[in-house]
TrEMBL record:
Organism of derivation: Alcanivorax quisquiliarum
InterPro entries from the UniProt entry: Na+/solute_symporter_sf, Put_Na-Bile_cotransptr
One Pfam family of this chain: SBF_like
Protein's name in the database: Bile acid:sodium symporter
Domain of life from the UniProt record: Bacteria
Residue stretches spanning the membrane: 39-56, 68-89, 101-121, 133-155, 167-185, 206-225, 231-255, 276-296, 302-319
UniProt keyword annotations, A-Z: Membrane, Transmembrane, Transmembrane helix
Length: 325
């Protein structure tokens, strides 16, 4: 698979995200309309995680599960290395942005890995696909439990406070319960979900766009763009580049140091370097005060597009070394 310029350009969903932010800036929901969107947002988040649960087959989880060293390394990169870098680099990187934006950087570091893109890039690069499916699926599920604790820990170090118990209760009710119900319903709707994955992903995307519109609209009304100068947005891009470069480099180094073969190295690189926008948007809506969600989401939105662009290049380089795709 050759690398083309179109693969480096923003994808349609990223363009839709940008359009949603512009719409929320120009026409934010207010009054009763805002209240109606709040109700729709709760329903959209529940639907999003219901579908996540329905898509996740137990066979996919079990496939490759015995490869525990690989999964342990990927989970360590996702839930230990990222947060550690976010805290360690704070004295150097935090002055580049506002405190609210760096809070979003720390939140991004606490998120689980992506599912679709991690598997897709592993496939392009001819990595260990069953292990990638297992690792990405498990990361998404573990993140429902681990991310709130990591966010609480990072907030305390960052100088903010919050209730971990309250966060866990909200996560369980709004995210985990729909996820479990969706997974239990898979025995009845699983085949239908598998047949219709192509258009069901648009339901996922519309749910995310609805949450983004509601969050950014509220943040705009509270003065988001007055509080975020252009220099801070540029600084945020630099921060995302630095963190992604470090994680990618450390992933390759650890995979080779620990003696993994090339296929496993590929899976580690693409599984351990991703952060999930699909999980991050609804989690931010649950974990943070309404007025701060907009600024908290900016880092993961930028990181999302950056990781796609960079990993296209890396996947094609791996593919040229391991065989034609």
């Amino acid at each position: 698979m050759s690398l083309s310029l179109s693969r480096l350009l923003p994808d349609k969903f990223t363009l839709a995200l940008v359009g949603t932010v512009v719409l929320a800036t120009l026409l934010p929901a207010q009054g009763q309309v805002s209240e109606a969107f709040d109700g729709l947002t709760i329903g959209a988040i529940a639907l999003l995680f219901f579908l996540h649960g329905a898509k996740l087959s137990r066979e996919a989880i079990l496939a490759g599960a015995l490869h525990w060293r690989l999964h342990l390394l990927i989970f360590s990169l996702t839930f230990l290395l990222f947060p550690a870098l976010g805290l360690a680099l704070k004295p150097v990187l935090a002055p580049l942005v506002t405190p609210e934006l760096y809070l979003g950087v720390l939140f991004m570091c606490a998120l689980p890995a992506t599912v679709q893109s991690a598997i897709a890039f592993t496939s392009i690069a001819r990595g260990n696909i069953p292990a990638a499916v297992c690792s990405a699926s498990a990361s998404s599920l573990l993140g429902i439990f681990i991310t709130p604790f990591l966010v609480q820990l990072l907030l305390e170090v960052h100088g903010d406070t919050g209730s971990t118990l309250d966060a866990i209760q909200k996560i369980v009710l709004q995210l985990l319960v729909p996820f479990v119900v969706g997974h239990l319903a898979r025995r009845w709707i699983g085949e239908w979900v598998d047949r219709n994955k192509a258009w069901l992903r648009y339901v996922d995307q519309m749910s995310i766009l609805l949450v983004v519109y509601t969050a950014f609209g509220r943040a705009v009304l509270e003065g988001l763009w007055q509080a975020v100068p252009g220099s801070a947005l540029l600084g945020l891009f630099v921060i995302c580049v630095v963190i992604l470069a470090l994680v990618l480099g450390i992933s390759v180094w650890l995979a080779r140091l620990l003696g993994f073969n090339k296929e496993d190295e590929i899976t580690i690189v693409f599984g351990g370097s991703k952060k999930s926008l699909a999980t991050g948007v609804p989690m931010a809506n649950v974990l943070f005060a309404a007025g701060t969600v907009g600024s908290v989401l900016l880092p993961i939105m930028i990181f999302h597009q950056l990781q796609l662009m960079v990993c296209v290049v890396i996947a094609n380089r791996y593919a040229r070394r391991t065989g034609k795709t």
